[in-house]
Design brief:
37% strand; single chain; 9 strands; alpha+beta; 27% helix; 4 helices; Cyclic Phosphodiesterase, Chain: A
Length: 188
């Protein structure tokens, strides 16, 4: 049993695990593996998700309280909801991402409710940046050819990856390793 004072790196998310989406994500990642573009760190396919809140290092006691708060989220329909994962884009030439089409605004409402409850109950500050729901495909370490990267992203801007059924918000532990992060769903 872990000591409750140990800190863990953690975040709140919705998983993206539909096989068609994961397969298409793998195809897109392969298109950006060209060394002429630069050094790009690809998200492991089993780690695809939409981050609702990055928490950083928190104690196990706080993690348990956050888990309880997540159990009170009232924005997700009982039988879940569907989103479309589509459009390829980039943030500041540093993140390659896929957009999320959530026509009923459930993800944004869920993220807002979580932010509100974390602030109210645990004094965890809100994100400073506005929420932009997306699935990260890769993080750019450096670019040899910024124009080539931007042009390649533009080529695939209208790509449709598929439909994902979402039924839960998850609290995950992120253990960093030299081979990439290992994510574990936390349940208490």
């Amino acid at each position: 049993m872990e000591d409750t004072n140990d800190e863990i790196r953690s975040f709140i998310c919705m998983e993206i695990n539909d096989p068609a989406i994961v397969s298409k994500a793998k195809e897109i990642q392969a298109l950006f593996k060209d060394d002429a573009i630069g050094k790009i760190k690809f998200v492991e396919l089993e780690n695809m998700h939409i981050t609702l809140k990055f928490l950083g290092n928190i104690s196990m006691d706080i993690a348990k309280k956050i888990y309880a708060i997540l159990g009170t989220v009232s924005t997700i329909p009982q039988d879940g909801f569907d989103i479309d994962v589509k459009k390829i884009g980039q943030f500041n030439k540093s993140v390659l991402w896929c957009g999320i089409d959530d026509p009923h605004g459930i993800i944004a409402a869920t993220q807002a409710q979580i932010e509100e409850e974390l602030l109210k109950q645990l004094k965890i500050p809100r994100e400073k940046r506005p929420f932009e729901g997306h699935m990260t495909l890769a993080r750019v370490k450096f670019l040899k050819d910024k124009k080539q990267f931007v042009d390649k992203v533009a080529q695939f801007k209208d790509t449709y990856l598929g439909k994902q059924h979402v039924s839960a918000v998850l609290l995950k532990k992120s253990q960093l390793t030299p081979k990439g992060p290992i994510y574990t769903i936390l349940q208490f």
